[in-house]
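Student: Send me a single protein entry containing the residue sequence and its fold in token form, directly below this note:

Tutor:
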Amino acid sequence: MFKVFLSFLFFFAGIGSAYAQTSFSATKNEQEKALNKYINASAVCAKMTDTDALYERGMLLLSDANDEAFLAAADCFTSAAMKNHTPSQLELGKLYESGNGVSKSKVYAYKWYQTAVLLGNNDAIPFRNQLEAGMTLDEVSLANPMIQSTLDLIEQINQRKQADLEELERNVAEEYRKFGVDISAYDIKDEADKKYDNPLIDTLIREQKKKEEDLKKLMQKNAERKSSDEKNEENGEKEKSERTMQRFKF
């Protein structure tokens, strides 16, 4: 009977050990999957160029509210912040102020809040003001040159982006020229200078403009004539009044 009891004991002990190992493996696999998820999210953010998409991905990561998610969100916000996206700069400041996903730092939080404010984001003003109230003069002084450096770097990135865009436009124009098409002829112009390929439409527009100009001239001429008539009438009344006064004088 004792042998049977020992057999059952070893049997259940084996089952428990196997269950514990399976449970541990499952938990480990889940953790690895979650970690890979956030590592991949950071890698994706590093390759993305659309600032709105980076911001949305960062906000989505924040909703997971764990260290790895905060770290990946910080990567997304940093990438967008350096491309002059002020909402991302604001969120990055919050992360530095709370220490989520990045090292807690009043100086860096202030840097991003103030950068967002200087670039026109009024939503960052109360965050900047509240943080500044609890900072020392040395901390603010330390942040100021960092803010200027960040603004200079953002400007350089913007200039490079504009140069790349202009280069792309030149390359596209050159490719079209190979097929005998000059795309500069299709540049959008002001409505007043807009030309249409249809000669009939162009003629109708010119005639309409001429009619409007003629009507304007006619109205101006009538106004001048009316003013002249009123002035003549006024002078006539004045002369008539003077003659009447002269008659009563004699």
Q: What stands out?
A: The chain has two domains: 14-177, 193-249. Confidence is low (pLDDT under 50) at residues 2-6, 8-12, 189-193. Helices lie at 2-47, 51-62, 67-81, 86-98, 106-118, 125-133, 137-177, 199-249.
